[in-house]
Write a structure and sequence with these properties.
23% helix; BRCT_dom; BRCT_dom_sf; XRCC1 protein
Length: 77
């Protein structure tokens, strides 16, 4: 998250997500592994403890695939 005080960031917090700065992404990519998010947390997203933090070896979180409704498409077509 580049900016911690946006509607998307607020929604992520509401859903229990953690907000990390862009440096987390760059450092994970540079080191070719998922790093702990604690040092990269923005705006007090979590307490100072490691609650909610995943181990370094954790795979990326899975995202549910979006459900597409039949016939749902651009209205102009």
């Amino acid at each position: 998250c580049a900016f911690p005080r946006t509607p998307k960031a607020a929604r992520a917090r509401e859903l229990g997500g953690l907000l990390v700065g862009p440096a987390w992404i760059w450092d994970c990519q540079r080191l070719q592994r998922r790093l702990p998010c604690g040092p990269y947390l923005l705006d007090g997203s979590a307490s100072s403890g490691s609650e909610g933090e995943e181990p370094e070896d954790a795979p990326p979180p899975s995202r549910p695939s979006p459900k597409v409704k039949k016939g749902a498409g651009p209205a102009h077509l």
